[in-house]
């Protein structure tokens, strides 16, 4: 098989590429990534490059995308602006990549009649505070610019499937964690700051609930959809690990032998959803996928990886990640 992977230098995209190549060494992978926020070339440094090609470009560049799309079996889109805080301080880049970038990929998939797998998020369902768990049929009710752009992109994918018959699958996954995640995200930021005995900021009261999945479980779910997913369908992906931000930070501090006194409660993020919760019965019942990794074991593995891989994150850990008060962001 020949795959066009978009955003493969980021956290989940690179996890997908490493895992896919390990299991399918003869498959050819073309990775288009503009090397912007969230990316790191070191994520794929150890990849066997025999059947691999990297193109540094923007997914909005239709000429590039369609040239490579013409010669692959499948397009998988991980490329996105992903950090909610950045979307609040500067939404425009999110609109451009997450909506216009997705449009360029859809035009390429349509022109060359390729299957387009679009990686989306549970955040677009909005706050599940007083509700159960959202299914694929729930309405989209995004609260911040990031999730609004992801919702818009999902609607566009659905519209291409209905209007032009473009072959598409959408995945909506919960919060991922694991090695190679950009240091500004909650789990790596907590590990990095705690290692340096810097205060660990928590928004509001820290009681926001998120559902966590190990990135390797997520990419295996995508593999099962590549093989057996139904075109035109949406699949939620969760490992059912719902836990508050406060509890996860306390777990990390405990694994690292650090005191909870490192936690510092800071002003809440505007539009901060209280709880995310989705139901992934569909992919489990229809495709037999289920998460393989135990949450606590995977969290310990992740902490060890960051502690042992300073060389990976040090050049990325900018002032915002390591400064004693990185949360003094201007909204
Ligand atoms: N991280 C999570 O917890 C999570 C959960 C659910 C869904 N998702 C979705 O999964 C996808 C990947 O997330 P991630 O955490 O790996 O993100 P990431 O920020 O680590 O990586 C995104 C990658 O996309 C690239 N990129 C950004 N804009 C681009 C553009 N215009 N053209 C080409 N490349 C571009 C970046 O350079 C980067 O390598 C995103 O669509 C995100 O919405 C993430």
Number of separate strands: 12
Per DSSP, what share of the residues sits in E-state strands of 2 or more residues? 15-25%
Query: So, CATH architecture of the domain at 2-176 and 211-237?
Result: 3-Layer(aba) Sandwich
**Spatial separation of the terminal alpha carbons:** 45 Å
Rounded radius of gyration (Å): 19 Å
Looking at this structure, what is the CATH superfamily of the domain at 2-176 and 211-237? Answer: NAD(P)-binding Rossmann-like Domain
**Helix-and-strand structural type:** alpha/beta
Please write out the topology.
Layout lengths: L1 E5 L4 H13 L4 E6 L18 E5 L5 H8 L4 E4 L6 H6 L2 H21 L2 E7 L23 H20 L3 E6 L1 E3 L8 H10 L4 E4 L5 E6 H14 L4 E5 L4 E3 H11 L7 E4 L14 H7 L7 H14 L1 H4 L5 H4 L9
Parallel strand pairs: 1-2, 1-4, 2-3, 4-5, 5-6, 6-10, 7-9, 8-12
Antiparallel strand pairs: 9-11
Helix pairs in contact: 1-7, 2-4, 4-5, 6-8, 6-10
Bound molecules: nicotinamide-adenine-dinucleotide.
């Amino acid at each position: 098989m020949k795959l066009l992977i978009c955003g493969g230098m980021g956290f989940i995209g690179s996890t997908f590429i490493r895992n896919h190549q390990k299991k399918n060494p003869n498959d050819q992978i073309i990775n288009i990534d503009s090397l912007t926020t969230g990316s790191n070339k070191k994520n794929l440094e150890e990849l066997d490059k025999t059947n691999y090609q990297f193109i540094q470009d923007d997914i909005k560049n239709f000429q590039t995308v369609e040239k490579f799309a013409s010669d692959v079996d499948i397009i998988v889109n991980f490329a996105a602006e992903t950090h909610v805080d950045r979307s609040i301080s500067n939404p425009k880049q999110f609109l451009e990549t997450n909506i216009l970038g997705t449009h360029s990929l859809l035009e390429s998939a349509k022109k060359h009649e390729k299957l387009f797998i679009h990686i989306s998020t549970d955040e677009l369902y909005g706050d599940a505070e007083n509700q159960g768990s959202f299914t694929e049929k729930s309405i989209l009710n995004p609260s911040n610019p990031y999730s609004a752009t992801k919702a818009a992109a999902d609607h566009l994918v659905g519209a291409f499937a209905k209007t032009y018959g473009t072959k598409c699958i959408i995945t909506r996954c919960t919060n991922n964690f694991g090695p190679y995640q950009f240091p500004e995200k909650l789990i790596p930021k907590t590990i990095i700051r705690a290692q340096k005995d810097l205060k660990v900021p928590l928004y509001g009261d820290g009681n926001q609930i998120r559902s966590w999945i190990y990135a390797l479980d997520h990419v295996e779910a995508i593999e099962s959809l590549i093989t057996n997913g139904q075109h035109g369908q949406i699949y939620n992906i969760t490992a059912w690990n719902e836990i508050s931000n406060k509890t996860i930070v306390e777990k990390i501090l405990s694994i690292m032998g650090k005191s909870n006194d490192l936690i510092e409660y800071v002003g809440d993020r505007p539009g901060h959803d209280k709880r995310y919760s989705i139901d992934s019965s569909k992919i489990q019942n229809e495709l037999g996928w289920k998460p393989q990794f135990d949450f606590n074991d995977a969290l310990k593995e992740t902490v060890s990886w960051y502690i042992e891989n300073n060389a990976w994150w040090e050049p990325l850990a900018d002032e915002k990640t390591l400064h004693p008060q990185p949360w003094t962001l201007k909204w």
